[in-house]
Amino acid sequence: MVVRIKAMEIQENVELKPHTVFKIGGQARYFCEARTLEDLREAVHFARDKSAPFFLLGAGSNVLISDRGFGGVAIKMMLQNLSISGMHVGADAGVSMARATAETIKAGLAGFEWAIGIPGTIGGSVRGNAGCYGKEMKDVLHSVRVFDAMTDELRVLSRRECHFGYRDSIFKKNPSWIVVSMNMYLESGVAQDSQKLVGKYSLRRRATQDIGAQCAGCMFKNVLWGAVDKSSLTKKFPDLREFSASPVIPAAFLIDRLDLKGIKIRGATVSTRHANYFVNVDNSTAEDVMALVSLVKDRVHRTYGILLEEEVQFIS
Asked: In terms of residue numbers, what domain contains 18?
């Protein structure tokens, strides 16, 4: 059945698997594509009327959906406006990071080249303070426009009010606050230089990551030194001293050192190229992936005393 609300369709019992990079997951009870702010508002109202939960889906990276599916409303964010005026860039939540990178370079702006390494959208990247190559969203972001699903209000939060942390933000603590768009200020640059930098990053990605594979990105957050006893860990495991000057211990390093690359549970495997990538190689289920996650977490904890924290969001 299809319910039409103004210009938007809400479909019943839609397979979510095709909407994710992992290509894993069951059906959503309801599914819609929000192309405007009004669509988003109506989708949230629909969920409220049905007393159903909702979740937001962007590019489908960084999520693992239950084999049983989702019993509420899956809202695919399709808001796509992107504007550039001088050094100022405004981008809606549904804009891909790759598109934002390309458009800013085309406009002669620099400082966002690193975002080519993020496979998701602006909305998800703001929510998770995504980053790579030593940069994060908080480094370029100026403000965020937010829709409060509880009050139906729009508000604008400054960078400081977003409470960004390592792969964290105020939006993770307030799931009813939906990122609608963001503003950032970049620097004047030379397009040719920026393209060279993007090329360098892309070569590095292709050499170390499973580009194009059915994979949600890094499964675990890197480990903050502030969360562990640095002195005792580096004494017991001298190879960790390599990261003493860094704020984190790479989760991939810990997994790799335990020879877990290539380990497989049915259709899910730890990548042989990047130990923090879990890949769907043979019609994997979410259950397969979660079993592999549990195995890896257990091995790392028993060896290092570190409990890895998932970066990928599990939807059930």
From this structure: 2-77
